[in-house]
């Protein structure tokens, strides 16, 4: 029902935005001049728009962004809508355009719906980059990718293979069946499984928990029942991995079925400590935000323009290069970070 | 319900003629029950691990919270109201309870449950006040309060999640412990249903809820305070939602701002499936139990059937539609039968 409603809301908004764009054409010239004037004088303003408020992962990312901007000097504007919707982000971007910011880093709620408003911003000289969750190539200069999707997928299979000694049935518990990120990682997991050394590992099923607690629990229970010999569950999603950890703990299957994947350290701390999940992965959201901050700065300073082959010094992250990503370009931040019993204590209070 | 008792007194005279249908009339949700049994057989044929003790236990445990909420929603629906705020109330009470236990690790779990219930009751009283005293349409009042409660949840949590490592073992074990070999969640749901059964069918106030729903004007004329009854049903709903919040957080060992977002629709669906009329005045506990069970069954069975996730939602929708149609057909037959008997 909600999905249905939101779909229509998106359709309605797109129509409204198209109409709005038509109006904009006429007075664009004058606004552009105003925009450029502000970026020449005074402190530059760097904005970051996250998916929604109240998301600990997003808070950390915004912290990292702030850290980067404070390092290079500039004014930081951190914004996020109440609900993870494209329309909420559109409103915020409209406001940022009025405020004449110099750069906007956005973690998009919709790949395409933001295109008109982001194009409008770019027409006025604002540097647009997406971070964490990309917008389409037309509506950004560059995308800051949290970690290489290929490495995310492959590392999880490498890890699970090590945990089950390279033998047995494994299943994947994902978010929704349409989730772009997860589907891409699962593709890479499957490719990794085709490599030599994994002949004895069988991927029996990809289940979808829709990032809902109750559904993820039902799906995990169904996996355990349908495949009694299951050795491991790989869940590349925060809600899914915690739900799987909880089910395995409750059913007393600790040691029999292991859980790994991508999760928040705080959510997974008790399962990593109890051994249900020997290790799991995630990138460091502070670094992602930091990377986006430095990249915004580099774009505003015109150190980079978002073309393949350019490179810049990304503060404590070292030198980063702009690489190809489908139609557009992106900056990769590196391997996902491994959390295990050794380091979980210091991370569980961070995020 | 009212026709049910009427039909019974008349049926003494014509018992021989319509004995079979008379039995049916006592149990109008027969269509739904038959459908559930058919579905069980079909699923069992495809996956033999379906009707095992373990799976049945999992399924009922997962349905317990839904059935508790559906009970409260039934009372609200009977008075011609609706409550869209329960998902948000659930999240708010769950979040505050989780924060409290994480700050005071020694807190007894029963106190946590009480705390959550009280928060829910307060939320319910606010809604009851808006609906009964100000006469705001329930759908508007609860829609507004839904956003307020959800916002409050984000505010009190500051956007942070409460994770399992922050919760004491005693709190998490509310949902995993067993009483007499039965999961505590199931026991709590059964106890609540027993109390509700007595309350709805055998107390004056309980009957007045139906009176207010089926005909508000005559209820008023006969001296029933509509304000009191409306206040009561929304308070009960709030209390049950608050209780469910604590159980939910304990079950999943995690409290987040968007807990149970949109869950109110599932709860309303369970009620409608169980034959509760949106137009008010009718609804039975047996129906609500079956409605919740059918939804729980679908959530449990579809993953076991290995159907494509793209089909799952469509299948779930179709099954609900078929169940409602069968239920309506059986009901229509029963009602027609009752009318026939009245002629004599």
Automatic annotation (TrEMBL), chain A:
The Periplasmic binding protein domain, residue ranges: 47-301
Gene3D superfamilies with a match to the protein in the record: 3.40.50.2300
Lineage, broadest ranks: Bacteria, Bacillati, Bacillota, Bacilli, Bacillales
Gene Ontology MF term list: carbohydrate binding
Keywords, ordered alphabetically: Signal
GO cellular component, one term: outer membrane-bounded periplasmic space
One Pfam family per UniProt: Peripla_BP_4
Location in or out of the cell: Cell envelope
Organism expressing this protein natively: Ureibacillus sinduriensis BLB-1 = JCM 15800
Annotated region (Disordered), positions in chain: 25-44
Signal sequence annotation: 1-22
One Gene Ontology biological process: rhamnose transmembrane transport
Keyword Mitochondrion recorded: no
Protein name: ABC transporter substrate-binding protein
Domain of life: Bacteria
Signal listed as a keyword: yes
UniProtKB/TrEMBL annotation, chain B:
GO cellular component: plasma membrane
Organism: Ureibacillus sinduriensis BLB-1 = JCM 15800
Membrane topology annotation: Multi-pass membrane protein
Name the record gives this protein: Branched-chain amino acid ABC transporter permease
Pfam family, one: BPD_transp_2
PANTHER family, alphabetized: ABC TRANSPORTER PERMEASE PROTEIN YPHD-RELATED-RELATED, RIBOSE IMPORT PERMEASE PROTEIN RBSC
Keyword S-adenosyl-L-methionine in annotation: no
Cellular localisation: Cell membrane
Record field: transmembrane: 30-47, 59-77, 84-103, 109-131, 136-157, 177-200, 229-249, 261-280, 287-305, 311-330
GO molecular function: transmembrane transporter activity
Keywords annotated in UniProt: Cell membrane, Membrane, Transmembrane, Transmembrane helix
InterPro entries named among the record's database cross-references: ABC_transp_permease
């Amino acid at each position: 029902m909600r999905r249905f409603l939101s779909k229509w809301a998106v359709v309605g908004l797109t129509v409204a935005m198209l109409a709005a764009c038509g109006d904009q054409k006429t007075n664009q010239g004058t606004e552009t001049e105003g925009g450029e004037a502000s970026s020449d004088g005074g402190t530059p303003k760097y904005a970051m728009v996250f998916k929604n408020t109240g998301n600990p992962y997003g808070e950390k990312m915004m912290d990292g962004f702030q850290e980067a901007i404070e390092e290079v000097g500039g004014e930081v504007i951190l914004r996020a809508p109440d609900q993870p919707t494209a329309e909420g982000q559109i409103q915020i971007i409209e406001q940022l355009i009025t405020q004449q910011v110099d750069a906007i880093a956005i973690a998009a709620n919709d790949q395409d719906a933001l295109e008109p408003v982001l194009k409008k911003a770019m027409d006025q000289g604002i540097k647009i980059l997406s971070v964490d969750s990309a917008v389409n190539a037309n509506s950004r200069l560059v995308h800051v990718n949290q970690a290489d999707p290929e490495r995310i997928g492959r590392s999880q299979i490498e890890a699970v293979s090590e945990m089950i000694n390279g033998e047995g049935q494994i299943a994947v518990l994902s978010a929704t069946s349409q989730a772009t990120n997860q589907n891409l990682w699962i593709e890479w997991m499957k490719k990794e499984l085709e490599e030599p050394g994994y002949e004895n590992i069988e991927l029996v099923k990809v289940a979808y928990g829709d990032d809902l607690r109750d559904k993820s629990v039902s799906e995990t229970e169904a996996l355990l029942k349908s495949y009694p010999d299951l050795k491991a569950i790989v869940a590349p999603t925060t809600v899914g991995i915690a739900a799987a950890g909880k089910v395995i703990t409750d059913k007393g299957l600790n040691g029999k079925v292991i859980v790994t994947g991508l999760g928040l350290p705080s959510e997974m701390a008790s399962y990593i400590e109890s051994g249900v999940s020997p290790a799991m992965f995630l990138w460091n959201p502070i670094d992602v935000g930091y990377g986006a901050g430095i990249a915004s700065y580099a774009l505003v300073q015109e150190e980079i323009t978002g073309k393949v082959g350019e490179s810049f010094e990304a503060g404590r992250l070292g030198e980063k290069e702009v690489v190809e990503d489908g139609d557009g370009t992106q900056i990769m931040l590196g391997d996902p970070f491994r959390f295990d019993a050794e380091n979980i204590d210091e991370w569980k209070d961070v995020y | 319900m009212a026709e049910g008792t009427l039909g019974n007194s008349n049926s003494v005279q014509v018992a021989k003629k319509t004995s079979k249908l008379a039995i049916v009339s006592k149990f109008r949700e027969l269509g739904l029950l038959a459908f559930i049994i058919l579905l069980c057989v079909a699923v069992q044929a495809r996956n033999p691990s379906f009707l095992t003790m373990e799976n049945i236990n999992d399924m009922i445990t997962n349905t317990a919270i839904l059935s508790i909420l559906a009970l409260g929603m039934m009372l609200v629906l009977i008075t011609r109201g609706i409550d869209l705020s329960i998902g948000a109330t659930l999240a708010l009470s769950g979040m505050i309870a989780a924060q409290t236990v994480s700050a005071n690790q020694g807190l007894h779990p029963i106190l946590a449950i009480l705390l959550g219930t009280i928060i829910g009751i307060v939320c319910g009283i606010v809604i009851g006040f808006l609906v009964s005293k100000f006469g705001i349409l329930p759908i508007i009042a609860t829609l507004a309060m839904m956003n307020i409660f959800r916002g409050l949840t984000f505010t009190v949590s500051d956007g942070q999640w409460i994770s399992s490592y922050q919760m004491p073992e005693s709190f998490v074990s509310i949902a995993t412990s067993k009483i007499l070999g039965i999961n505590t969640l199931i026991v709590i749901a059964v106890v609540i249903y027993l109390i509700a059964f007595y309350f709805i069918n055998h107390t004056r106030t309980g009957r007045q809820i139906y009176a207010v729903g089926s005909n508000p004007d005559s209820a008023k004329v006969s001296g029933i305070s509509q304000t009191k009854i409306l206040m009561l049903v929304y308070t009960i709903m709030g209390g049950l939602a608050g209780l469910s919040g604590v159980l939910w957080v304990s079950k999943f060992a995690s409290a987040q701002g968007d807990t149970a977002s949109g869950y109110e629709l599932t709860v309303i669906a369970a009620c409608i499936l169980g034959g509760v009329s949106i137009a008010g005045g009718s609804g039975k506990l047996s129906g609500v139990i079956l409605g919740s069970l059918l939804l729980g069954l679908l959530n449990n069975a579809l993953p076991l059937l290995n159907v494509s996730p793209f089909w799952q939602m469509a299948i779930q929708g179709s099954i609900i539609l078929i169940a409602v149609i069968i239920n309506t057909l059986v009901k229509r037959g029963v009602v027609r039968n009752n009318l026939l008997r009245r002629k004599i």
